[in-house]
Amino acid sequence: MQDVNHQLFSDSVWEECELSMTESRAQEIEKILKAFDLLEYKDCHPMALSGGQKQRLAVAAAILSGKRLLVFDEPTSGLDYRHMLEVGRMIRELAGQGRIVLVVSHDREFMEKACDRIFKMNGKTATDRTSSGRIY
Q: Is residue 34 pLDDT above 80, yes or no?
C-alpha cells in the first residue's frame, strides 16, 4: 500500500512476520529480520517503529509470504542508502530463487541495482532495458 501504516496488523514485529507465512519458521523470520536490522525490535508493536523500519517490515513480511509473484510499489520509500541496497539484494536473491518480482519505483539507482529489466514509462510509450543496458 502507499501508506505502510495500512498494511501492518499484528501486535509485534515477529507476529507480523508470522502472519504472512503459511507455517511459521523461526530461523527464516530471524534471518530476514536480522538482514533488515529489525531483530532487536521483534517484540515491539509495528506502530512504534520509525517510518523506514515499518517500510522494511512490510518488505520483510512480503518476502516471508513465500508467494511466487511479489509486487512492490516504491519499496525503498523512506529508506536510507544502506537499507535500499539490502532491499535490492533481497529482490535479486528472490529472482534467483525463481520468484517473479515486479517493482514500481521512481528511484532509478535502486532499479538499476535491483532489477534485471527496466521498463521506463514516458507518457504513452515504454522503453524496455535489460541490466546490460540494451534497449528493445
A: yes
| C-alpha dihedral (2, 78, 25, 98), degrees to nearest 10 | 70
Lookup: cell for 119: 521498463
Question: Angle formed by the axes of helices 51-64 and 81-96, to 10°?
Answer: 10
User: Strand pairing of 100-104 and 69-73?
Assistant: parallel
Q: State the pLDDT confidence band at 129, using cuts at 50, 70 and 90.
A: low
**pLDDT for position 131:** 59
Torsion sign across C-alpha atoms 108, 111, 116, 122: negative
User: Three-state DSSP class for 8?
Assistant: coil
